[in-house]
Amino acid sequence: MKVSTVINLRPFSGPVMTLLTGSGLSQLIMFAASPMLTRLYDPGAFGQYAILSFVLSFAIVIATGKFEIAVLLPKTDEEGWALVCLAGGITIIVTLVGAVVFSGVLLTVGASWVHGLGVRTDIALVSFIVLSSAVVFLSGWQCVLFVWMNRLGNYRGISAARIVQAFVMAFSQICLSFAIEGLFGLLTGTVIGLFFCLLVQIAFVIRSQKYQIPQLVIIKQVARDYSNFPLHTIPTDLASTLLAQFPIYFLGSRFSDEAVGYYSLAQRTLLAPMQLIASSVGDVFRKQASALYLQRGECSAYFRKVAIKLAAIAIAVGVAVVIFFPDLFAFVFGEKWRIAGEYSRILIVMYSLKFIVSPLSFMFIIAKRTRLDLGLHITFLVVLIGVFGAMSGFEISEPQAIALFVSVYSIMYVTYLILSIKFSKGNV
C-alpha cells in the first residue's frame, strides 16, 4: 500500500492551522492553570518535579529505540506500521527493564536523592517507581503514535489528544494538590494526563484503519533498514537531553531548588506560546519536506518559506518578552515569581533560535546525516561541560549562569541552522 502524499507548499496551510488550534488550546489550558498551580505547589515542588523529569528524560529517549523517527520515511504504510510496532515493543521492554534497574539504584546508591524528593516510606518508594515507569511507558507510546498519526495526516486526532492531555493533566494536578502534597501531586497528574492522551490516540488510530501486527520478517527487515537510527539518534538524543536539562542540573547543584523552580516556570511559560507553533509547523514540515526530498532530491524553497515565517514570529515574541514578562509574571503568578520573569528576558534569545531551528533541523534525518548530528551534539556537550567546569572556581550569580547557557546554546542553534539550509538544497 503506497502512502498517499499531498504536498502543500504553504507553511501555514490547513494542517498547520489544525495543529495550531489543538496545540494552542492545550497550551492555553496549561497557562490558565499555572497561576493556581503556583499557589498550590511551592517552588521547591516544581524544582523537584523538574529534576525528576530530567532523570526520566534519559529513559524516555531510549524507550522507543528512536525507530519512530523513521516512520515518516518509508514509501509504504506497511513498512511505516511495522516501525510503529517495533518502536512500541521496544518501549515495553525498556519500561520493564528500566523499572527493575531504577528500583535497584534507588534502593542502593540513590537513597539520599530519593529522600530529598520527599520519598521516605516504602509505600512512597513503590508509588514513586510505578509512577516514574508509567511516565516512561506512556510517553514512549505517545511519541510513536503521534508520528504515525502525522504520517496518516490525522491532524485532528493529534490536536484532540493534546487538548485532552493538557486538560486532564492540569485538572488532576489541581485536584490532587488537596490530597497529595508536593512532587507526588504533580507526578500523578502527569501520569493521568498521559494515559488519557494515549486512549484518544488509540481511538483515532483504530478508527482511521484496521491494522494487524505485521509479520516478524517485516519487522526484522525494517529494523535492519533503519538500524542507523538507534545507533546514532539514541546517543544524539541523550546528548540533546543533557544539553537541554543541564541548566536544571547546574542550578540545582550550585544554587537551590528554588532557583530551579524559577527557571522551570520561565522555561514552561516561554515554551508554551512558542512550542505550540513550532511543534505544529514541525509536524507538517517533517511530512512535507520528506515527501519533497523523496520526489525532487531537495526542498530548499519550502524550507526557506518556513524559516522566514518562524523568524518573524520569533522576533515578535522576543520583543514582547523583554518588555512585559517581569511585571506579567508578578501579576499572574504572584510577586515571588518576578525572578522567573527576569530569567525569561535572558532565555528568550536561546528559545527564539530554538523555535526557528527545531522544526527545520529534521533535515539532518531526511538527508541521512545522523552521524554528523551525533558529532555536533557531543561537541557542544563537551564545550558546555568544559565552560561550566572552568567556572566552578568562580563566584557566579543565577542570571550570569543562565546568560552563559544562552551563549553556548545560541551558537549551537546557529550552527544547526546553517547546516540545515545546506541540506535542504540536496546533493549532500
TrEMBL record:
<dbReference type="GO" id="GO:0005886">
    <property type="term" value="C:plasma membrane"/>
</dbReference>
<keyword id="KW-0812">Transmembrane</keyword>
<feature type="transmembrane region" description="Helical">
    <location>
        <begin position="186"/>
        <end position="206"/>
    </location>
</feature>
<feature type="transmembrane region" description="Helical">
    <location>
        <begin position="374"/>
        <end position="394"/>
    </location>
</feature>
<feature type="transmembrane region" description="Helical">
    <location>
        <begin position="46"/>
        <end position="69"/>
    </location>
</feature>
<keyword id="KW-1133">Transmembrane helix</keyword>
<feature type="transmembrane region" description="Helical">
    <location>
        <begin position="310"/>
        <end position="334"/>
    </location>
</feature>
<keyword id="KW-0472">Membrane</keyword>
<feature type="transmembrane region" description="Helical">
    <location>
        <begin position="123"/>
        <end position="148"/>
    </location>
</feature>
<dbReference type="InterPro" id="IPR050833">
    <property type="entry name" value="Poly_Biosynth_Transport"/>
</dbReference>
<feature type="transmembrane region" description="Helical">
    <location>
        <begin position="160"/>
        <end position="180"/>
    </location>
</feature>
<feature type="transmembrane region" description="Helical">
    <location>
        <begin position="12"/>
        <end position="34"/>
    </location>
</feature>
<dbReference type="Pfam" id="PF13440">
    <property type="entry name" value="Polysacc_synt_3"/>
</dbReference>
<protein>
    <recommendedName>
        <fullName>O-antigen flippase Wzx</fullName>
    </recommendedName>
</protein>
<keyword id="KW-1003">Cell membrane</keyword>
<feature type="transmembrane region" description="Helical">
    <location>
        <begin position="346"/>
        <end position="367"/>
    </location>
</feature>
<feature type="transmembrane region" description="Helical">
    <location>
        <begin position="400"/>
        <end position="419"/>
    </location>
</feature>
<feature type="transmembrane region" description="Helical">
    <location>
        <begin position="81"/>
        <end position="111"/>
    </location>
</feature>
